[in-house]
């Protein structure tokens, strides 16, 4: 582990990874490797989740290909020095900003989308010219193993290396003086990573989670709202950091909304055999989720197949913010529904809690859209849709407050793994003496005129 780290430091300091052609070469190689081994990725994630090829491609691999394609097409322009205006005090200088890679970076991935959430930040880091050590989550054991095998067989370890392991290996990695750490996971573990990074003053990006609210307003198109929200909630069996965690619905449309949701769930016919559903990652998570289902508030579902590690779509009605299910991020296929009679009160309840990673608003009212966007702080979200903002690499993806810090995707990922160096380039053929001694009243007067 230390040897790989040291070799990556040496390689980075050789300046080889800073070459635009070298970066593009690594990205092209990564795309080729992913394409050539798609079947192995499909098999590995099926062993972990029983996830279908269709959903693995659409929610994992396709997003990685899109990130690589964007980086390849935009990398030259992203990497150029950017000219900016020089102020009058520095006349006749030129000023510009130079993007440069940070160095050797550590990426700690998450288990719920093991390929996307591990490799996407690595794409950004490689595009920016860094060397990368990737630590996938050990929870998705088969997905972790296939990433390690394929990447370590295909890449020079001094450029890109996958280090498998659990808490012990992660702890050892965090003791090393990386130039950047990028972590995706829970808020609890994020705090541990943040504390470890602080000991070496390592800059860090945290992609965490939280209880992402969905507002369903009186004027919402309930049929389309149910269609889009149900898909987003039960995708990956709810094991999605930006899934709608709970619904706040106007009390005047609650019953119609619930019926529309049930109808949509029934039409989707979620099941492993249908290729549109997955297992809960392990028994511990299944047992945790089972405890969150209040049978007294069960509106629909609640069926559990422990032998298959499956919890079928479950809807809880007449919930309140005091319920157990509302005390932590659910991260599973359980949807609590809370009705409201006053939107201001509902917004206030959301604002009393930690800032969520996402927020979704279903309404046709411009006033309500603007109100919730301006009054509720959250990482990112959508209006009349859910989750799909993640697919647009023109948008930054990241949290705020307890849901994370920093962002990535597209140019935002490049920026996250870059330092922007400010340069003043001044000729020697002219120099005013205003800043030099002896100091006089007229010099001060001129400086005030120039600088204010």
Automatic annotation (TrEMBL):
Keyword Oxidoreductase applies: yes
Taxonomy, superkingdom: Bacteria
CDD domains, A to Z: ALDH_YwdH-P39616
Sequence ranges assigned to domain Aldehyde dehydrogenase in this UniProt record: 16-421
Annotated GO biological process: aldehyde metabolic process
Listed InterPro entries: Ald_DH/histidinol_DH, Ald_DH_C, Ald_DH_CS_CYS, Ald_DH_CS_GLU, Ald_DH_N, Aldehyde_DH_dom, Aldehyde_DH_NAD(P)
Active site as annotated: 207, 241
Keyword entries, A-Z: NAD, Oxidoreductase
One term under GO cellular component: cytoplasm
GO terms for MF: aldehyde dehydrogenase (NAD+) activity
SUPFAM superfamilies documented for this protein: ALDH-like (SSF53720)
Family membership: Belongs to the aldehyde dehydrogenase family.
Official protein name in the record: Aldehyde dehydrogenase
Species: Flavobacterium cucumis
């Amino acid at each position: 582990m230390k040897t790989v780290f040291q070799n990556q430091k040496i390689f980075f300091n050789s300046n080889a990874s800073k070459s635009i052609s070298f970066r593009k070469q690594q990205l092209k190689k990564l795309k080729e490797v992913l394409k050539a081994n798609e079947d192995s990725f499909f098999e590995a994630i099926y062993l972990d989740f029983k996830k279908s090829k269709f959903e693995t491609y659409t929610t994992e691999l396709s997003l990685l290909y899109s990130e690589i394609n964007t980086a390849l097409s935009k990398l030259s322009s992203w990497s150029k020095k950017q000219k900016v205006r020089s102020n009058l005090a520095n006349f006749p200088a030129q000023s510009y900003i130079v993007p440069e890679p940070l160095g050797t970076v550590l990426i700690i991935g998450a288990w719920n989308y093991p390929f996307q959430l591990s490799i996407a930040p690595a794409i950004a880091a490689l595009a920016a010219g860094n060397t990368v050590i990737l630590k996938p989550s050990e929870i998705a054991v088969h997905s972790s193993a296939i990433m390690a095998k394929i990447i370590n067989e295909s890449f020079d370890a001094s450029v890109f290396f996958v280090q498998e392991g659990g808490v012990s290996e992660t702890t050892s990695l965090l003791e090393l003086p990386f130039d950047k750490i990028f972590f995706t996971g829970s808020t609890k573990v994020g705090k541990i990573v943040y504390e470890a990074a602080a000991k070496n003053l390592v800059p860090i990006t945290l992609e965490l989670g939280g209880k992402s609210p969905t507002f369903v307003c009186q004027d919402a198109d309930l049929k389309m709202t149910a269609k889009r929200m149900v898909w987003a909630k039960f995708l990956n069996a709810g094991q999605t950091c930006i899934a709608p965690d709970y619904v706040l619905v106007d009390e005047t449309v609650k019953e119609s909304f619930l019926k529309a949701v049930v109808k949509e769930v029934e039409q989707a016919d979620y099941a492993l055999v249908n290729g549109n559903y997955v297992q809960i990652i392990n028994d511990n998570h299944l047992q945790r989720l089972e405890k969150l289902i209040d049978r007294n508030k069960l509106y629909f579902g609640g069926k559990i197949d422990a032998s298959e590690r499956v919890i079928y779509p479950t809807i809880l009605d007449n919930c309140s913010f005091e319920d157990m299910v509302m005390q932590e991020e659910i991260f599973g296929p359980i949807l609590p529904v809370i009705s409201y009679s006053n939107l201001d009160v509902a917004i206030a309840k959301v604002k009393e809690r930690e800032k969520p990673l996402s927020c979704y608003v279903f309404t046709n009212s411009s006033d309500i859209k603007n109100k919730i966007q301006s009054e509720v702080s959250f990482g990112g979200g959508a209006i009349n849709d859910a989750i799909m903002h993640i697919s647009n690499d023109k948008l930054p993806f990241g949290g705020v407050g307890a849901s994370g810090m920093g962002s990535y995707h597209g140019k935002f990922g490049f920026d996250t793994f870059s330092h922007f160096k400010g340069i003043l380039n001044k000729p020697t053929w002219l120099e005013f003496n205003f800043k030099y001694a002896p100091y006089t009243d007229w010099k001060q007067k001129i400086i005030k005129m120039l600088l204010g």
